[in-house]
Design brief:
The chain is an alpha/beta fold. It is built from 21 helices and five strands. It has three domains: 127 residues, HUPs (Rossmann fold, 3-Layer(aba) Sandwich), CATH 3.40.50.620; 119 residues, Serine Threonine Protein Phosphatase 5, Tetratricopeptide repeat, CATH 1.25.40.80; 173 residues, DNA Cyclobutane Dipyrimidine Photolyase, subunit A, domain 3 (Orthogonal Bundle). The chain has a five-stranded parallel sheet with strand order 3-2-1-4-5, with helices on both faces. Helix 11 packs across helix 16 and helix 15 runs antiparallel to helix 16.
Length: 486
């Protein structure tokens, strides 16, 4: 059915694309020849979808405020509403007199289903609907094995992606002159969404660590291009160095797009500011994100069900409440684990190498089901992503795609000594150990009493003794893996 000529407005529906640059739906709206009005719908009760965690809710509030300011700067009317998604969107379409609705695609199954229902219903009413890809370099269904069907191993997946050619160039941000302002929809204040903590207000560390919003994304990425991309291929595993892009929360909420990151990094290499090796590695990390979305698209319950069904028989232990609490609070007695968990709690983010170490400790040293850890990260990470979080936890558990060798058990002591060799990361987040000699910093339980005394540390009082013996826990984990080998 064609568009009703009485409907003269274009409605731009923002979702996980909270930016103006490289936003295909916004570009389409600006080019539609109609006045444009924009909407964001907050629906915490969308059937089948997972509610945002606490840290993500805090980030969303800041991002929406930033987006509102950015829309105002180009003369784009923007409203925030809360309620059931389909009902709220269709009501806004009717109020605005929209003959065209545009949005960028989402990939969680419940969200895809909702979008399909809305698209079908609006088209039946004579409203044109167009959707676009702003979130990924390649659509999940575009990448297939040579024999057909989804891919389950990263390397051939990424080769198939690269065979598609370079990702499209990012789109420019429409100027004020390009936007014809449509009707201003009535909305609610962002404060009324009650996304932020109040009593207690635990978000002080997040405010210090992050500038959410599109401008914050650009500033953070520019700093990475200047100071972190050169040497990225090797330094990205060092939590004691500013060698990671910190783009994950901005990608999560769409304040920057992967095409922008891809081409900016490529330009840095072309200009001689980074090596091809460094840029290839950075691109490959974007590729892992693509792979995670490919997995999620083909396995909608990735956060709830083992990708590898053999793990349905894995003998998980019932979590010891004291051990689980120690892991969450960074009081396990293993400094690199504790530094990571405290970084997470204070900043809403954790270095990727340390995420693997902390996840391995929970899963393999404590034999706790990976879903318990995935759920904690979902609540506490500002970049809690439905694809990355689940795929990465399953990878560490061994139950996921491409998790070879699935029985790998990280030694937290050796990992700390290898990737935090000067102890700067541990000393920053576990300050009670800052005066322990480096020789013992990652294994304080082995330090002589006089060395601990001189550092002002009494194990079990100032810093905990290890809650488990890693070597015994490793043997226990390997025995558990033996049970599912067949």
């Amino acid at each position: 059915m064609t568009s009703d000529p009485g409907r003269s407005c274009t409605l731009l529906w923002f979702r996980e694309d909270l930016r103006l640059a490289d936003n295909p739906a916004l570009t389409a709206a600006a080019r539609s020849g109609r006045p444009v009005t924009a909407l964001y719908v907050f629906d915490p009760d969308l059937s089948g979808a997972r509610a945002l965690g606490a840290a993500s809710r805090w980030w969303l509030a800041q991002s929406l405020r930033s987006l509102a300011d950015d829309c105002a700067a180009i003369g784009l009317p923007f409203a925030v509403r809360a309620g059931p998604t389909e009902k709220t969107v269709r009501k806004a379409v009717a109020e605005a007199g929209a003959g065209l609705v545009v949005w960028n695609r989402r990939y969680v199954a419940a969200e895809r289903d909702t979008d399909a229902d809305i698209k079908s219903g609006l088209r039946d009413e004579g409203v044109d609907v167009e959707s676009f890809n702003a979130r990924l370099l390649y659509e999940p269904w575009e990448i297939e094995a040579k024999s057909g069907g989804p891919l389950k191993v990263y390397s051939p997946f990424w080769r198939a992606c690269r065979a598609k050619g370079e990702p499209a160039e990012p789109l420019p941000k429409p100027s004020k002159a390009k936007i014809a302002a449509g009707p201003k929809l009535k909305g609610i204040a962002i404060d009324d969404l009650e996304l932020e903590p109040t009593k207690p207000d635990w978000a002080g560390g997040l405010r210090e660590a992050w500038p959410p919003g599109e401008a914050g994304a650009g500033k953070t990425f520019s700093a990475f291009l200047k100071h972190g991309l050169k040497g990225y291929a090797t330094d990205r595993d060092r939590p004691d160095r500013p060698a990671t892009s910190r783009m994950s929360p901005y990608l999560r909420f769409g304040e920057i797009g992967p095409r922008q990151l891809w081409h900016a990094a490529k330009q840095a290499a072309d200009g001689g500011d980074a090596s091809a090796k460094d840029v290839d590695k950075f691109h490959a990390e974007l590729g892992w994100r693509e792979f995670s979305y490919h997995l999620l698209h083909n396995n909608p319950d990735l956060a709830a069900r083992n990708f590898n069904a053999r793990f349905d028989e894995f003998p998980w232990r019932k979590p010891d409440p004291a051990h689980l609490r120690a892991w969450r609070k960074g009081l396990t007695g293993y400094p690199i684990v504790d530094a990571g968990m405290r970084q997470l709690w204070s900043t809403g983010w954790m270095h990727n190498r340390v995420r693997m170490i902390c996840a391995s400790f929970l899963i393999k040293d404590l034999l706790v089901d990976w879903r318990v850890g995935e759920d904690w990260f979902w609540d506490t990470l500002v970049d809690a992503d439905p694809a990355n979080n689940a795929a990465s936890w399953q990878w560490v558990a061994g139950s996921g795609a491409d998790a070879a060798p699935y029985f790998r058990v990280f030694n937290p002591t050796l990992q700390g000594e290898k990737f935090d060799p000067e102890g700067a990361y541990v000393k920053n987040f576990v300050p009670e150990l800052k005066d322990v000699p480096l020789k013992w910093l990652h294994r304080p339980w082995e330090a002589p009493e006089e060395a601990l005394r001189a550092a002002g540390v009494t194990l079990g009082k100032d810093y905990p003794k290890p809650i488990v013996d890693h070597h015994a826990a490793r043997d226990r984990a390997l025995a558990a893996f033996d049970r599912i080998k067949a």
